[in-house]
C-alpha cells in the first residue's frame, strides 16, 4: 500500500459505483466520475460529468404534487471508447467478466499525479487475447481539457481492430435511486458533427437555465486506416480502423474539451471546444503539464503523519478537495457542493458543510476560500429577499443553495424504507446563515485580509446579524430573547410531537452562535476605519436602534439547560428515551433511525435521539474560553464541567446518521478520551474509502467529512487555532501518531513549517518570508523571525503541565 495510490484489483460490478466516485477526476471547473469508457449508465455503471455551478431546474410530479428541483447537471459524457475485433461485439468489461473472459482487471488512482490507470487483459469469444493499458487525466493545468490514452496489445492474433470513440449527450440525471421519480432530463440536444481531420463535437443546452454546453474530442490512432462517423440526436461516434499485428501495441489518444456559454474569454462554446482540442498537445505533454500543476498544489498541502494507512486516506481526501475547489474555481461563481463534483446526491447543492471545508482552503489557498465566500456575497440580494418575505430585516441564507441562492431544499422527500413521500422541513435550519458569518470571520482571522472584510465580509456579517437580531423575539416575562420555530443541525428533530407547526424553540446551537455572530458584527463595526464604517452603515441603512438591538440581543439571548447540560432545544428534556439496544439488535445499522421509525409509523421527534452533533457543534466551533465569554455575556456563571457533561450526555444519544457527526465527536473526545477520539477519527477517515455510509459514497463523496479529517489533524492534533494575529498551538498527538508535519500559509506568510513529535514541537519560518510571526503556545508568546525556528518540549505529544510554582 502506498500513500499515494488507491488501487482496486478485479472487476466487481457491486463495487463499481463507489470506485467511480472515489476515482473521479476533476480540476475545480469540471469533474468526471471514474467510470468505464466502455459502458453507459446501466444500473451498475454511472458515467457522470459535472461542471461547477452548471445547474438546471425542472418540475416533477410526485405524490400528487408538482415539485421543482434544481440539479447540478450531468453534462455530456466525453469518455466513451471501446474496441472490437473483426466485427465482433464491442468490448464491455461486464460482459467479458460474465462469460469468464476477463483474465485480469486492475484500476489505480495515482493521487500525487492525478492519473487514473486501468490495466485489463481479456479474451474474446474467438480466443483472441488483448492487453489494454489506459491512462486518464482531467487536466489540472487547462481546466477545460481531459485526455485518455489507451494502449492495446493483440497478444495472440493479427487482424482488423476497430476503435469506437464517441461523445454522448443523451445522459440524464439518474445517479441516485431515491430521485428516480424526479425529472432528470436536463439536456436538450443541439447539434453534433465532425471537423477534419480528427475531431468531433456535440452541443446541447440545459432545459430551463439555458446554458449552452459543448464537448469536443480529438481521437488519434497510430496507423489508422479509415475513419467513419455515425451520429444520432445527442450522440456522435467515430469508428477508426487499424490493421493490428500480434504483439505490436496500438495507441489511441482521445483529448476532450468542455466549454459552456458561461465561460470567459470565448466567443462561442462549440468553437472554443473544437479549437481547444485541435490545438492541444499530445497526451504525454498534457500529462507532463498536468503533473506539474498537481505538484504546485501538493506543495501547498504539506501534511504528513507517520502512519501510511492514515496518510493515504488523508491524501485521498485532500485530492478530492482540490479536485472540487482549485485555483480554477477562483474565477467561477460557485460554492462547494456537499458531495463534491462526484455524484448527484443532494443535487450538487451547497449546505452549511462549507463550515468544514473552508478552513482547509483558508490556510493553503486563501484565494479559493475567498472565492467560496464571494459566492455567498453575490447571493446577498436573494438572502435579503428571503428575509423580507419571512417578515425580517437582514439576510436569511437558504439551507440548500444552488445557482441564484434561493432556497433549494426539497419540500417532499422519499423514505426509501417506507416508500412514502414526506414533508421536508429542513429549510428551517436557519443556522446556515450563522455558518456563513462564522466562515467570514475565521477567514479574516486566518488571512488577515482586511480588504475582504471591509468590502464584502462586513456586509455579510452585518446582514446576517441583523436577520437574527430581528428574528429573536423578546420574552418580557423572562427578560430574554428567543428564537422560535427553527431546526438545529440535528435533522431528526423538526418539530415537537403533537404540535402542528414545524420547528423548535431556542435551539441551543442557534441561540449561542447567534450571540457569537452578533458580537463579531459589533466588533467589525468597531474595527472598520471610520469612513468605511459610515459608508457601510449608510449603504445598509443600519440605524443606531438596530445596533442597540444587536447589542441587547447579544446580552439577553435565552439559553436553555437541563440536567446540568446545554439543552438541544427547549423541551428536549421532556422527550422519551429511546431503547437504543433494542433498535440496534433489531436493525443492526441504525444510522438512519429517522427512516426506521417513520416506517414503523413512529417519529424521531418523540425521542432523545440525534442524527448528529447539535448543541455540541458549539464546542467544535468555539474554544472553551470563547464559550465561557459568551455565557458570561449572557449572565450565566462559569460552569467548569459543562462541556464534559454535555458531551457525555449526547454521545450515547446520537446515531451518527450524518458523516459530519463522528468527525465532530472525534474532535470533542480528543479533549476527554484520546482512545475513543482516535476510534471516531479512524471511523470518519474510512467513511468513504470503505463506503461506511452504506452505499451512499457511490452517489458522491462526503466532502465536509473529508475536509474535516484534514482539519482535525491540523486543528486538533497539531492544535492550531488562528485567533487574532497570533498563531496558537496546543498539540495533542493521539497515541496512534508519532510525528506530524505541516506546511502552512498564515496571514500572508507562505512558509510556516511545523513538526510535532511525541517529545517536541518545532516551528520554522522559511527564509525570505517578509516578516516575523507570533506564536502562542503553553501560555507563552514568541516571535519567530524569517529563517528562524522555535522549539518546545512535549510530553507524550502534549504540552507538559505547567510546573508548580516555588514552595511557599
Ligand atoms: C446532514 C447535514 C449536511 C447534509 C449535506 C445531511 O445528512 O444532516 O448536516 O449538511 O447532509 O452534507
TrEMBL record:
One of its Pfam families is: Glyco_hydro_65N
Q: Where is the Glycoside hydrolase family 65 N-terminal domain?
A: 8-262
Q: Which GO terms describe its molecular function?
A: carbohydrate binding; glycosyltransferase activity; hydrolase activity, hydrolyzing O-glycosyl compounds
Per the record, the GO terms for biological process are:
carbohydrate metabolic process
**In what ranges is there compositional bias, type Pro residues?**
799-808
Disordered: annotated segments: 786-808
In this protein, the active site sits at 491 (proton donor)
- State whether keyword Transferase applies: yes
Kindly give the InterPro entries that the UniProt entry links to this protein.
6-hairpin_glycosidase_sf, 6hp_glycosidase-like_sf, Gal_mutarotase_sf_dom, GH65_N, Glyco_hydro_65_C, Glyco_hydro_65_M, Glyco_hydro_65_N, Malt_Pase/Glycosyl_Hdrlase
Matching entries from SUPFAM superfamilies are given as: Galactose mutarotase-like (SSF74650), Six-hairpin glycosidases (SSF48208)
Q: Where does substrate bind?
A: 352-353, 611-612
Q: Which UniProt keywords apply?
A: Glycosidase, Glycosyltransferase, Hydrolase, Transferase
Q: Which residues are in the Glycoside hydrolase family 65 central catalytic domain?
A: 316-710
Every Glycoside hydrolase family 65 C-terminal domain range? 722-783
Q: Which family does the record claim for this protein?
A: Belongs to the glycosyl hydrolase 65 family.
Q: Which PANTHER family match?
A: GLYCOSYL HYDROLASE-RELATED (PTHR11051), PROTEIN-GLUCOSYLGALACTOSYLHYDROXYLYSINE GLUCOSIDASE (PTHR11051:SF8)
Listed name of the protein: Trehalose/maltose hydrolase-like predicted phosphorylase
Provide the species name.
Actinomadura viridis
Specify the taxonomic lineage: Bacteria, Bacillati, Actinomycetota, Actinomycetes, Streptosporangiales
Amino acid at each position: 500500500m502506498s500513500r499515494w495510490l488507491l488501487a482496486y484489483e478485479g472487476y466487481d460490478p457491486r463495487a463499481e459505483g463507489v470506485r467511480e466516485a472515489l476515482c473521479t477526476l476533476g480540476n475545480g471547473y469540471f469533474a468526471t466520475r471514474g467510470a468505464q469508457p466502455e459502458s453507459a449508465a446501466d444500473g451498475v455503471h454511472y458515467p457522470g460529468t459535472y461542471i461547477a455551478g452548471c445547474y438546471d431546474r425542472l418540475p416533477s410530479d410526485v405524490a400528487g404534487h408538482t415539485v421543482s428541483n434544481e440539479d447540478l447537471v450531468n453534462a455530456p459524457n466525453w469518455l466513451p471508447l471501446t474496441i472490437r475485433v473483426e466485427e465482433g461485439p464491442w468490448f464491455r468489461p461486464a460482459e467479458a467478466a460474465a462469460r469468464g473472459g476477463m483474465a485480469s482487471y486492475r484500476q489505480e488512482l495515482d493521487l500525487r499525479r492525478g492519473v487514473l490507470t486501468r490495466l485489463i487483459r481479456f479474451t474474446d469469444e474467438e480466443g483472441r487475447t488483448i492487453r489494454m493499458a489506459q491512462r486518464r487525466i482531467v487536466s489540472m493545468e487547462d481546466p477545460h481539457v481531459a485526455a485518455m490514452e489507451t494502449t492495446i496489445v493483440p497478444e495472440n492474433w493479427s487482424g482488423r481492430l476497430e476503435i469506437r470513440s464517441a461523445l454522448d449527450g443523451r445522459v440524464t440525471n439518474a445517479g441516485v435511486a431515491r430521485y428516480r421519480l424526479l425529472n432528470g432530463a436536463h439536456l436538450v440536444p443541439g447539434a453534433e458533427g465532425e471537423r477534419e481531420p480528427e475531431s468531433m463535437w456535440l452541443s446541447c443546452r440545459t432545459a430551463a437555465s439555458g446554458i449552452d454546453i459543448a464537448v469536443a474530442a480529438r481521437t488519434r490512432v497510430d496507423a489508422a486506416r479509415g475513419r467513419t462517423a455515425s451520429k444520432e440526436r445527442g450522440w456522435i461516434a467515430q469508428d477508426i480502423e487499424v490493421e493490428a499485428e500480434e504483439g505490436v501495441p496500438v495507441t489511441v489518444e482521445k483529448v476532450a474539451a468542455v466549454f459552456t456559454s458561461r465561460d470567459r474569454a470565448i466567443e462561442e462554446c462549440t468553437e472554443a471546444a473544437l479549437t481547444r482540442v485541435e490545438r492541444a498537445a499530445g497526451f504525454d505533454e498534457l500529462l507532463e503539464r498536468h503533473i506539474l500543476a498537481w505538484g504546485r498544489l501538493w506543495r501547498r498541502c504539506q501534511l504528513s503523519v507517520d502512519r501510511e494507512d492514515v496518510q493515504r486516506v488523508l491524501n485521498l481526501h485532500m485530492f478530492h478537495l482540490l479536485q472540487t475547489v482549485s485555483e480554477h474555481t477562483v474565477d467561477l461563481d460557485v460554492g462547494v457542493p456537499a458531495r463534491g463534483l462526484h455524484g448527484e446526491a443532494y443535487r450538487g447543492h451547497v449546505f452549511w458543510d462549507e463550515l468544514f471545508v473552508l478552513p482547509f482552503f483558508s490556510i493553503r489557498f486563501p484565494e479559493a476560500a475567498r472565492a467560496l465566500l464571494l459566492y455567498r456575497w453575490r447571493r446577498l440580494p436573494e438572502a435579503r429577499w428571503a428575509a423580507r418575505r419571512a417578515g425580517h430585516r437582514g439576510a436569511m441564507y437558504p439551507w440548500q443553495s444552488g445557482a441564484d441562492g434561493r432556497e433549494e431544499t426539497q419540500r417532499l422527500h422519499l423514505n426509501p424504507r417506507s416508500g412514502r413521500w414526506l414533508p421536508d422541513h429542513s429549510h428551517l435550519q436557519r443556522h446556515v446563515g450563522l455558518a456563513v458569518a462564522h466562515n467570514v470571520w475565521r477567514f479574516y482571522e486566518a488571512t488577515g485580509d482586511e480588504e475582504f472584510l471591509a468590502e464584502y465580509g462586513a456586509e455579510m456579517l452585518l446582514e446576517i446579524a441583523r436577520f437574527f437580531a430581528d428574528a429573536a423575539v423578546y420574552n418580557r416575562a423572562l427578560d430574554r430573547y428567543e428564537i422560535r420555530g427553527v431546526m438545529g443541525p440535528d435533522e431528526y428533530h423538526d418539530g415537537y410531537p403533537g404540535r402542528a407547526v414545524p420547528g423548535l424553540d431556542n435551539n441551543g446551537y442557534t441561540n449561542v452562535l447567534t450571540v457569537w455572530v452578533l458580537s463579531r458584527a459589533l466588533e467589525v463595526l468597531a474595527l472598520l476605519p471610520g469612513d468605511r464604517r459610515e459608508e457601510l452603515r449608510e449603504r445598509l441603512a443600519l440605524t443606531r436602534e438596530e445596533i442597540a438591538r444587536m447589542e441587547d440581543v447579544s446580552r439577553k439571548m435565552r439559553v436553555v439547560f437541563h440536567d446540568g447540560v446545554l439543552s438541544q432545544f427547549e423541551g428536549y428534556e421532556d422527550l422519551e428515551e429511546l431503547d437504543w439496544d433494542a433498535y440496534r439488535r433489531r436493525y443492526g445499522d441504525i444510522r438512519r433511525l429517522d427512516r426506521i421509525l417513520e416506517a414503523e409509523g413512529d417519529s424521531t421527534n418523540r425521542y432523545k435521539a440525534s442524527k448528529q452533533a447539535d448543541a455540541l457543534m458549539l464546542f467544535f466551533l468555539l474554544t472553551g474560553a470563547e464559550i465561557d465569554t459568551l455565557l458570561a455575556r449572557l449572565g450565566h456563571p462559569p460552569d467548569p464541567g459543562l462541556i464534559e457533561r454535555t458531551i457525555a450526555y449526547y454521545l450515547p444519544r446520537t446515531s451518527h446518521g450524518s458523516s459530519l457527526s463522528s468527525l465532530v465527536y472525534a474532535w470533542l473526545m480528543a479533549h476527554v478520551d484520546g482512545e475513543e477520539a482516535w476510534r471516531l477519527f479512524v471511523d470518519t477517515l474510512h467513511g468513504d474509502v470503505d463506503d461506511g455510509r452504506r452505499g451512499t459514497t457511490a452517489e458522491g463523496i462526503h466532502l465536509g467529512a473529508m475536509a474535516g479529517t484534514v482539519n482535525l489533524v491540523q486543528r486538533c492534533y497539531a492544535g492550531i487555532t488562528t485567533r487574532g494575529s497570533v498563531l496558537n498551538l496546543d498539540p495533542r498527538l493521539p497515541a496512534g501518531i508519532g510525528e506530524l508535519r505541516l506546511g502552512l500559509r498564515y496571514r500572508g506568510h507562505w512558509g510556516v513549517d511545523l513538526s510535532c513529535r511525541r517529545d517536541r514541537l518545532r516551528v520554522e519560518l522559511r527564509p525570505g518570508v517578509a516578516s516575523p510571526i507570533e506564536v502562542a503556545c503553553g501560555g507563552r508568546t514568541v516571535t519567530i523571525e524569517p529563517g528562524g525556528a522555535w522549539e518546545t518540549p512535549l510530553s507524550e505529544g502534549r504540552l507538559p503541565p505547567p510546573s508548580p510554582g516555588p514552595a511557599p
